[in-house]
Hints:
lipid biosynthesis, mitochondrion, 72% helix, globular
Amino acid sequence: QVDVAAMVRLFGYVDVTDTGFIVAVLSIAFNPLFWNVVARWEHKTRALSQVFGSPHAACYCLGTVILVLNCVRSHCFTEAMKSQPKLEGWDYHWTYYSGLAISAVGTLFVISSFLALGFTGTFLGDYFGILMEEKVTSFPFSVLDNPMYWGSTAIYLGWSLMHASPAGLLLTAVVAISYTIAVLYEG
Length: 187
């Protein structure tokens, strides 16, 4: 049997009807949906490449939009956490430093993924016809599939622990679910 008491207690701290929380959920779900739809549309039509004059310019533009949307998502996530109560039992140094360590590992995965793939490799260049010479198998891809997604999820998990935020933990679950769906869609 599963003991649901901890989950019930966690949900007691989260107001899922709060406008900020809803906006955070929507921004989390929107991002991978947006970039996958736009990338597939570009792959089929080459419309962005035509508008921007080259696949590289179009890819850099889409990458910039994705970065801005990620900043908006992170802001919404943070604001939703700040507007909801903390879990008093977690508001200790050990939780903060555990969260900091998890965020650091996530940041390592995100940055090393970006360095291994480059800008166009990170931001869907293959949909623009910008292909890498060979598949990247070096770190972090040697230890984890989709390290950019799971590194980003770890950053949000760490951030939630650092703030002792049940709302942040629930939003992190939304991030993980969104990325799981994106991986299935992209695969």
